[in-house]
């Protein structure tokens, strides 16, 4: 197992902010790592350091001689008029047949491969960039928020690509579902330190919360003990007969130290607008047609959304999700048919065309106070701003100096502080980190109004959605199933397409050409697999029990040394458990 990149004792500042403070990490040649941390922690800066585009102030960045980095470019590398195939040949120097073969892994064919690449949507252009990466034969992929603006189908294609990619990857993402599907380890950047966790994102988040809860319990015990000792010392130090005992207690007091809680930022708390629940139909569409004067996107739309529902709009990029949302909020007029909102509706909108039209003369604080519910206090405003990363002096910044991402967060804050009883949200999770997305999902779940939204974050969609509306092939209709069911259906479609391509390319070898001998061999292998599965199930159950018992001990343990030992045991069991579960899944597909 070769170390491809090693960062040793790295220090880096940006103004007064410490991004790296003696940070250390090693990336090895066969591990895919999910990279997480709060917005502004320095994740993108670290990627630039590893790429050699930025230097550390102190420390070492060591590259293995065989290192070949594939970096997913965010900028547009395409020339005017060139096709995807032209770009792949120019970028890689590979022949057209090889470029076409790799492009096929991402369903790039026909007009998508041979037509103008600049005419493709952002999601399809990302597929072209991924095919270009693969043609360069990298042994380490670096992907910075690769799922932003990718539809579900393209995300699944990317997941499959990464699962088949048998080399290393470092992936920055706020999408928990994507990280869970692709990465076996988790790297966190917090307060200038890098911590590698030998497990998936959900195990890491659970472990981190358990560790913080344990530290809080230990601190509570230590503080209570400190209070007792101080009371004894104060009472007895002036008394000659008990002065020696008081000095002994003072020595004990010096040794008692609380644990520094590993919380890199204040806990994110977001509240949705305070509204009264309503009954009946919020909006009704009848024989609606949507689109533009020269292009009809969808027609014959007849559906209703009830008050209190959280309707997720789903579909591939380019099918018309955003067009549907814009029509609902009257940013686009229907081409035909009727769209009618119920009585007493107040719509709050979050979309790019909204946050690009803020009053640039105002400060963040002025805008939020102007937009908020009259009953909202200054403290409520500051708390919401803080949750969306505007703290201390940042609250007094003029809107004209804010980046696009910062303006988006200002719009989100003002919307949540308002009085809207219907929220229409286009990609609300963009520009937010994992913790803030989770807090937003919880706020929307508790919201008494109606939510109509679209997002590329599957964890967020599954947490929030109560019903699903699909935009596909010129139609918009209710999808009769949960969001998880919809994801499973798309996964099945993608997998079937991959099987057909593999068969057409001659990559799928038949196991039935060897006659009865091969059949007997298959039966023997199936019996062997069944036995392994039963053994693994017993092992997984045993490890689960051990992990639960250790966690229960950990939550009540007050000795810091013993707590560290228990932590290490839990960590070792989680690694063994993860390996056993992955092996079980692998054999289950046999």
UniProtKB/TrEMBL annotation:
CDD domains: ABCF_EF-3. SUPFAM superfamilies: P-loop containing nucleoside triphosphate hydrolases (SSF52540). It comes from the Bacteria. Keywords: ATP-binding, Nucleotide-binding, Repeat. It holds the Pfam family ABC_tran. The keyword Repeat applies. GO terms for molecular function: ATP binding; ATP hydrolysis activity; DNA binding. Residues 497-544 are annotated as: Disordered. The keyword Transferase does not apply. Residues 506-521 have a biased composition (Low complexity). Residues 522-544 have a biased composition (Basic and acidic residues). InterPro entries: AAA+_ATPase, ABC_tran_C, ABC_tran_Xtn, ABC_transporter-like_ATP-bd, ABC_transporter-like_CS, ABCF, P-loop_NTPase, Val-tRNA_synth_C_sf. Residues 5-223, 283-498 form the ABC transporter domain. This is ABC superfamily ATP binding cassette transporter, ABC protein. It comes from Rhodopirellula sallentina SM41. The lineage of its organism: Bacteria, Pseudomonadati, Planctomycetota, Planctomycetia, Pirellulales.
């Amino acid at each position: 197992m070769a170390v491809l990149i090693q960062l040793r004792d790295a220090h880096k500042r940006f103004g007064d902010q410490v991004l790296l403070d003696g940070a250390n990490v090693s990336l090895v040649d066969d591990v895919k790592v999910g990279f997480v941390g709060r917005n502004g922690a320095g994740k993108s800066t670290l990627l630039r350091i590893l790429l050699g585009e930025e230097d550390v102030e102190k420390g070492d960045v060591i590259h293995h001689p065989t290192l070949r980095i594939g970096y997913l470019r965010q900028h547009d590398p395409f020339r005017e008029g060139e096709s995807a195939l032209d770009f792949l040949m120019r970028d890689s120097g590979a022949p057209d047949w090889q470029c076409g073969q790799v492009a096929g892994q991402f369903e790039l064919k026909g007009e998508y491969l041979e037509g103008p690449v600049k005419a493709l949507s952002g999601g399809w252009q990302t597929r072209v960039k991924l095919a270009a990466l693969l043609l360069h034969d990298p042994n380490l992929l670096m992907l910075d928020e690769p799922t932003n603006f990718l539809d579900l189908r393209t995300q699944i294609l990317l997941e499959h690509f990464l699962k088949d990619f048998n080399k290393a990857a470092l992936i920055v993402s706020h999408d928990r579902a994507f990280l869970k599907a692709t990465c076996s380890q988790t790297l966190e950047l917090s307060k200038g330190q890098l911590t590698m966790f030998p497990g998936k994102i959900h195990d890491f988040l659970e472990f981190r919360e358990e560790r913080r809860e344990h530290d809080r319990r230990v601190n509570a015990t230590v503080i209570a003990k400190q209070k007792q000792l101080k009371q004894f010392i104060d009472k007895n130090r002036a008394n000659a007969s008990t002065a020696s005992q008081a000095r002994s207690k003072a020595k004990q007091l010096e040794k008692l130290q609380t644990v520094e809680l590993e919380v890199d930022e204040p806990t994110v708390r977001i509240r949705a607008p305070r509204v009264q629940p309503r009954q009946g139909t919020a909006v009704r569409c009848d024989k609606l047609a949507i689109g533009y004067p020269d292009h009809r996107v969808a027609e014959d739309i007849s559906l209703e959304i009830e008050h209190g529902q959280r309707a997720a709009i789903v579909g591939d990029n380019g099918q018309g999700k955003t067009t549907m949302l814009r029509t609902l909020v009257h940013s686009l007029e229907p081409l035909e048919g009727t769209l009618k909102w119920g009585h007493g509706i107040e719509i709050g909108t979050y979309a790019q065309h909204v946050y690009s039209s803020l009053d640039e003369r105002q400060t963040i604080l002025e805008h939020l106070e102007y937009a908020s519910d009259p009953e909202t206090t200054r403290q409520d405003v500051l708390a919401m701003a803080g949750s969306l990363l505007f703290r201390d002096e940042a609250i007094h910044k003029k809107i004209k100096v804010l980046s696009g991402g910062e303006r988006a967060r200002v719009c989100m804050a003002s919307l949540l502080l308002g009085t809207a009883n219907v929220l229409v949200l286009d990609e609300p999770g963009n520009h937010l980190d994992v913790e803030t997305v989770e807090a937003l999902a919880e706020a929307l779940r508790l919201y008494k109004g109606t939510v109509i939204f679209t997002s590329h974050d599957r964890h967020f969609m599954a947490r929030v959605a109560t019903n699903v509306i699909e935009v596909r092939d010129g139609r918009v209709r209710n999808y009769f199933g949960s969001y998880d069911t919809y994801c499973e259906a798309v996964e099945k479609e993608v997998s079937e397409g991959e099987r057909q391509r593999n068969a057409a390319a001659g990559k799928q070898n038949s196991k039935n050409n060897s006659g009865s001998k091969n059949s007997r061999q298959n039966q023997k292998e199936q019996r062997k697999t069944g036995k392994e599965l039963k053994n693994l199930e017993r092992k997984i159950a045993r490890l689960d029990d051990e992990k639960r018992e250790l966690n229960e001990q950990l939550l009540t343990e007050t000795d810091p040394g013993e707590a560290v030992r228990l932590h290490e045991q839990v960590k070792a069991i989680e690694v063994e458990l993860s390996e056993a579960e992955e092996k079980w899944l692998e054999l289950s597909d046999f």
